[in-house]
Every structure is written in structure tokens, then in C-alpha cells.
Design goal:
The protein is an alpha/beta fold and 300 residues long. Helices cover 43% and strands 13% of the residues. It has a four-stranded parallel β-sheet with strand order 1-2-3-8, with helices on both faces. Strands 4-7 form a two-stranded parallel ribbon. It has a two-stranded parallel ribbon with strand order 5-10. The chain starts with a helix and ends in a 9-residue tail after the last helix. The structure holds guanosine-5'-diphosphate. Guanosine-5'-diphosphate binds next to helix 3, helix 6 and strand 5.
């Protein structure tokens, strides 16, 4: 989802000389393969969007995969980028790097000031290691490697799996299927009270290109809207967009996760960037894509 959104954005900005690989063409977990790729292709600019990602259930169920795959991929790519003289690399992290009970909204300097949320700690530890790698390669070798922290994302090419995906695409599918089947209710995990912030992948891609062109410092930059909704509010919005008439029921056996993770986006705003796709508008777009997947631009 993120890689294809960045590619679309760069195409729109007029860039042409791309080197892309999907995971079946290049396994970023194999160090030798990654070294060979960088030595042969010699990219100048790298967007490191590749990651093992998933929702709250997937993170709890496959903690070893989340910590191992993310650490090994970023180690291989960041080190090869250094070794082959990449001019600039942008590493994508996540808002879950911040402490579970961080003051809201969360500023960049809250990194490593408290305990992490248990449900995705292995993933968060991997992403924190990625930020620190970028900073360490900058400090020791002078590499222009930057880190950005997106909030919860959604958009074309999202994962709609009922178990493993994030809340927004999963609820789109649940409401759509309930409408089709005439089901009386849709199940929402947890209590519905946690708050989450959602950013369209096209806005994220726009921010990444902006930062690739304009930001050259250590540390991290939050990317979000600066606004959040409760899971119940999200569910009601999706219900409306899908046109479902039934009820919501809550499954309290499922975890809520962190109570809130709203980004403080003032650093990015002060640099001159702001999101443009409002949540309701974005939901309408992705629901249209969901209904007509052939309208999507294929993954490069
Ligand atoms: P998180 O942001 O890392 O906690 O990951 P998720 O996007 O998976 O979950 C966000 C919140 O949505 C949590 O409080 C979940 O319990 C809640 N949620 C409600 N219904 C669902 C659902 O059907 N799938 C998922 N993944 N989360 C749900």
C-alpha cells in the first residue's frame, strides 16, 4: 500500500528513473541478495517502506515474525545503502514507537520516555531500532538517512483480511459483507473507546516526497492529521459510507490496545506540510476501490 502510493506520487511529480522490486522478486530478508541488488542497481534515493505489518491480532499472534522480519529487512537495506553510497534514505516507522501512556498529542521527543504497548511491543522495538540505525549511520558515516513516523494508514492496496488486518479495512469488509448478507449486526472488537488517527496513503506519500526533498536531519518526523476518532465513531462512519442499516455489537474478549495514539504534527506543519484527504472522503474512495478492485493502479 505505502510503496505503491509513493511510486504513484513520484510519477505524478515527474520522476521517471525508478528501481522497484516486489517481495517475490527481491527477498529483503536475505543479506547477500540485498547487497547484490544495491551493488548492481546503485540507487541514489531509497524509500524503505517494506515491512511486516498487521493489526492488533496479528501482532499478538506472530510476535517473532514482527520483530525478526522488520529488524532483518531494515538492517540489510540500511547497511547496503550506506555501503553503496546512497545519497538519501527515508525510513518509515510507526506511531506505536511511542510509550503506551505518552501525553497526547505525542511529540517526537517522547520516544523512549516510557513503557510500550504490550500488543505490538516487538514491532515497535524493531521500528525504534530502525530510527536509531538511521541516526547512528548519520553520526558515524555522515549518511543522509531520515526517519518518518506515520500514524494508522489506509488506502488503495490495503489488506482486508478479517483476522490480520488493521481496524479500518477490516471494518469496511465486515460492514460490506453484513450488508450483502442482511446480517443484523457487525462485531467490533474491544470496547470501541480507544481513539485512533487515520491518514490516507496518498497523503502519506505526499508527505514522504516532501520530506525526501526538504528534510535532512537526525531524529524523526511524525506524519498524521493531528485529529483522531474513537473506534465507535470510525465504525459509525464506515456504516454510513457502506450504507449498512444494522447494529454494532462489541466483542470484549478482544484487546483494545493502546487507549490513544494521536500524533503531534506541529514539526511537519512548521516545515510546511498538511494532509488534504478528510477521513470521510477517504473512506468513500477506499470503499469504491474495494467494490471495484480492477480500478486500482497495479502495484509497480
Ligand atoms: P492498533 O492500532 O495497533 O491497536 O491496531 P488495529 O488497527 O488492529 O486496532 C485498533 C483498534 O480497533 C483496537 O482497539 C481494536 O480492538 C479495534 N477494533 C475493533 N474492531 C476491530 C476489527 O475488526 N479488527 C481490528 N484489527 N481491530 C478492531
Amino acid at each position: 500500500m505505502v510503496g505503491s502510493a509513493i511510486h504513484r506520487k513520484l510519477l505524478g511529480l515527474g520522476y521517471t528513473n525508478f528501481i522497484t522490486r516486489n517481495s517475490s522478486e527481491l527477498d529483503l530478508r536475505i543479506q547477500e541478495t540485498v547487497n547484490e541488488f544495491f551493488e548492481t542497481e546503485r540507487p541514489d534515493y531509497v524509500f524503505l517502506a517494506a515491512a511486516k505489518v498487521g493489526g492488533i491480532w496479528a501482532n499478538q499472534s506472530f510476535p517473532a515474525d514482527f520483530i525478526y522480519q522488520n529488524i532483518v529487512v531494515q538492517c540489510n537495506v540500511i547497511h547496503s545503502a550506506y555501503a553503496t553510497g546512497v545519497k538519501k534514505l527515508l525510513f518509515l516507522g510507526s506511531s506505536c514507537i511511542y510509550p503506551k501512556l505518552a501525553p497526547q498529542p505525542m511529540k517526537e521527543e517522547y520516544l523512549l520516555t516510557g513503557l510500550l504497548e504490550q500488543t505490538n511491543e516487538p514491532y515497535a522495538i524493531a521500528k525504534i531500532a530502525g530510527i536509531k540505525m538511521c541516526d547512528a549511520y548519520r553520526a558515524q558515516y555522515g549518511c543522509n538517512f531520515i526517519s518518518v513516523m506515520p500514524t494508522n494508514l489506509y488506502g488503495p492496496n490495503d489488506n482486508y483480511d478479517l483476522q490480520n488486518a488493521h481496524v479500518l479495512p477490516t471494518l469496511i469488509r465486515k460492514f460490506h459483507e453484513a450488508k450483502q448478507n442482511g446480517d443484523p449486526a457487525v462485531t467490533v472488537w474491544g470496547t470501541g473507546t480507544p481513539k485512533r488517527e487515520f491518514l490516507h496513503a496518498d497523503d502519506l506519500a505526499d508527505a514522504c516526497c516532501f520530506l525526501m526533498e526538504n528534510y535532512n536531519q537526525e531524529g524523526l518526523v511524525n506524519i498524521g492529521t493531528g485529529e483522531d476518532v474513537t473506534i465507535t465513531e470510525l465504525a459509525l462512519l464506515i456504516k454510513e459510507v457502506v450504507g449498512y442499516e444494522g447494529d454494532l455489537i462489541y466483542d470484549a474478549s478482544k484487546p483494545d490496545g493502546t487507549p490513544r495514539k494521536l500524533m503531534d504534527v506541529s514539526k511537519l506543519t512548521n516545515l510546511g506540510w498538511k494532509y488534504s484527504i478528510e477521513l470521510k472522503e477517504g473512506l468513500k474512495q477506499v470503499y469504491a476501490d474495494y467494490l471495484n478492485p480492477s480500478s486500482l493502479i497495479p502495484h509497480p
